[in-house]
Write the structure tokens for this entry.
Amino acid sequence: MNCVIKILEENPLVYLATNGLDNNSKIRPILYYFEEDEKPYFCTSNKKNQCIKKCKKKF
């Protein structure tokens, strides 16, 4: 798990693409927040700017 946490700390903001119910692509930002008890915690939003603003505040 330490390897995964290290990668997440180096790249905290990633995007996840899924297929929506309307068969169109849905892209969501996912922000790594912290690790506790070897469990990563994330933040996500359907508004890209909100997650990016939180990331900028954190760093």
